[in-house]
């Protein structure tokens, strides 16, 4: 039997990077996948790839910064599959790099709305459905920057610290319901968002900040998600799991 056989998983930001790798792996392990992304072309591409590999999925165009989109996603999941077992709140953006005194208010609001409020909106609608069945696993994607600072990235750092705190609170509130809530903190991962925004020199410099001397790969993060989503992690809740090539050990 496959690890996620007969499970239903929502994965936000599933059109590329970590979200895409997770969706493909979870589908391979037997889960029915609800893909969401603001980019319709990318989302549909992943949907077609899952179907071509014999998996089951639907794609919903959704903006996680809008509470009504998170509500719609959960409603459509229940309508289509009748249950919700796993939610990966993954969608996020990096935002501009600037000092706090020069950071534009609109940029702050955008990063916080997607990276932090989006996780709250997701859980706000996901948790009651899981509570009904007395089981479920929610994985919130934080970052190594949910534990440490990073100059000129104030909104991102604040949002990811907030995700870790929000995760702990959800675990305390829902621990006795059978629903588990954990956070994962990837270091810098080789995704399109990272690769497309860096020069070769900047990329190499970033890689050297990790004791392993390289950036992580999306599939490496997806494997950790798989364990946390599975029954093998049955006593894990309220925890923060870095996957960082040693970054936080410095």
Report on this model:
With 250 residues, the chain is α/β, with parallel strands linked by helices. The protein has a single domain, classed as NAD(P)-binding Rossmann-like Domain (Rossmann fold), CATH 3.40.50.720. Helices cover 46% and strands 16% of the residues. The chain has eight helices and seven strands. Strands 3-2-1-4-5-6-7 form a seven-stranded parallel sheet, with helices on both faces. Helix 5 links the parallel strand 5 and strand 6. The longest helix is centred in the middle third of the chain and has 29 residues. The N and C termini lie far apart (40 Å).
Summarize the structure.
The chain has 250 residues and is of the alpha/beta class. The chain is built from 8 helices and 7 strands.
Query: CATH superfamily assignment?
Result: NAD(P)-binding Rossmann-like Domain
Spatial order of strands in the largest sheet: 3-2-1-4-5-6-7
* Unreliable residue runs: none
Overall number of structural domains: 1
Kindly list the characteristics that best describe this protein:
8 helices; Rossmann fold; 250 residues; 7 strands; alpha/beta; 7-stranded parallel sheet
SSE topology:
Layout: E1 8-12, H1 17-28, E2 32-37, H2 40-52, E3 56-61, H3 67-81, E4 86-89, H4 105-133, E5 136-141, H5 154-174, E6 179-186, H6 192-195, H7 200-208, H8 218-229, E7 240-243
Parallel strand pairs: 1-2, 1-4, 2-3, 4-5, 5-6, 6-7
Helix pairs in contact: 1-8, 3-4, 4-5
């Amino acid at each position: 039997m496959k690890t996620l056989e007969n499970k239903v998983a929502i994965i936000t930001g599933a059109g590329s990077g970590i979200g895409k790798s997770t969706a493909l792996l979870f589908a391979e392990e037997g889960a029915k996948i609800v893909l969401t992304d603001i980019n319709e072309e990318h989302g549909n591409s992943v949907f077609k790839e899952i179907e071509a590999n014999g998996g089951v999925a639907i794609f919903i165009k959704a903006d996680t910064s809008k509470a009504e989109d998170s509500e719609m996603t959960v409603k459509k999941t229940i309508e289509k599959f009748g249950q919700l077992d796993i939610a990966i709140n993954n969608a996020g953006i990096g935002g501009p790099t600037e000092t706090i005194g020069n950071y534009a208010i609109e940029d702050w609001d955008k990063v916080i709305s997607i990276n932090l409020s989006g996780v709250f909106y997701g859980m706000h609608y996901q948790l009651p459905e899981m509570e009904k069945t007395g089981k479920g696993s929610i994985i919130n994607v934080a970052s190594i920057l949910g534990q440490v600072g990073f100059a000129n990235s104030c909104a991102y750092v604040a949002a990811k610290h907030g995700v870790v705190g929000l995760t702990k609170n959800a675990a305390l509130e829902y621990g006795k319901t059978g629903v588990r809530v954990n956070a994962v903190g990837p270091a810098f991962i080789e995704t399109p968002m990272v690769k497309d925004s860096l020069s070769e020199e900047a990329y190499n410099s970033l890689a050297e900040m990790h004791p392993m001397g390289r950036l992580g790969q999306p599939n490496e993060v997806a494997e950790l998600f798989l364990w946390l989503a599975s029954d093998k992690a049955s006593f894990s809740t309220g925890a923060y799991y870095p996957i960082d090539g040693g970054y936080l050990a410095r």
